Amino acid sequence: MSQLSSRHLLGIKDITAEDIQLIFETADNFKEVLNRPIKKVPSLRDITIANIFFENSTRTKLSFELAEKRLSADVVNFSSSNSSVKKGETLIDTVNNILSMKVDMVVMRHSSPGAPHFLSRNIKANIVNAGDGTHEHPTQALLDAFSIREKLGDVAGKKVAIIGDILHSRVALSNIFCLQKLGAEVMVCGPITLLPKHIASLGVKIEYDIQKALEWCDVANILRIQLERQQIKYFPSLREYSLFYGVNKKMLDRLDKEIVIMHPGPINRGVELNSDVADSEHSIILHQVENGVAIRMAVLYLLAGVR
Ligand code: CP
User: 231 is in which domain, residue-wise?
Assistant: First the structure.
């Protein structure tokens, strides 16, 4: 297979295991390019890409922009906070105005779940979902699984515990779909208030005791407490959350094996993850960020082939 089964990347739910393997194999090649003195290829020389961000981002936005530039695409960046959205312009009007400037692909982050899906039914350009509210963050899941494959050789058969604020996390849902499609076992762990009611229907294990989750897994993907999405109190205080669910070195020292520590970032240091783990040899957090560029290059390159 040399083409993706879809012309958009809206979510991991919509793509196949074969699509994911193709993205990984393409990313392997781009990772080799990124390690050369000249980190640029002419693959998307005739393509213009708009990065449209209605929510804050550091890693995803910079990583997409670098990926586009490494592929020689023309790039325009839109940030809603300093745009005419502030004057009341709608999403469709905003995007159609950007597309009328001959843009071929849109990378979009939006706070509303389904916003890129809605857009995909109304515009001609390829769309990449860079995170839609609490729904999906497909390129994050791809780079996470790619990083596990790089560290442990394969994703199939591995046990991955996703720990923390599952309820508000688009990373959790995309990771569950991606890891299961690749043959991994997935557990979610957190306080009951931060686990969605119907999470078991996705075929994941559920654990409330974090030490047991760490004992079970090969990889712990620690998620950020998303206070900006929490309109009510889900736990008494950050201090209490940290006492019961914050991952620290003492917890890892109690294990009779080594586990891999991941976090999609940004980290609330001292809340869900202590610095003595985040910055330790167990952590592959900065490798995840590094791999994000190769994965996004692969996604954009492959989508350009199904225009
Ligand atoms: N992991 C992630 O999506 O980070 P940003 O919000 O900084 O893009």
Answer: 138-287
Angle in degrees, CA 130, 144, 246, rounded to 5: 100
Q: How close is the Cα of 60 to the center of ligand 1, in Å?
A: 5
Claim to verify: residue 182 and residue 115 sit in the same structural domain: no
Nearest to 263 by CA among 220, 212, 213, 230: 220
pLDDT tens digit sequence for 164-208:
999 999 999 999 999 999 999 999 999 999 999 999 999 999 999
Task: Give the residue, out of 51, 54, 60, with the most ligand 1 atoms within 8 A of its beta carbon, to mutate for a pocket test.
Answer: 60
Domains of the chain: total: 2
Which ligand 1 atom lies nearest to the CA of residue 109? Answer: 8
pTM of the entire predicted model: 0.96
Q: Is residue 7 part of a domain?
A: no
264 lines ligand 1 (CB under 6 A): yes
| Amino acid symbol at 103 | V
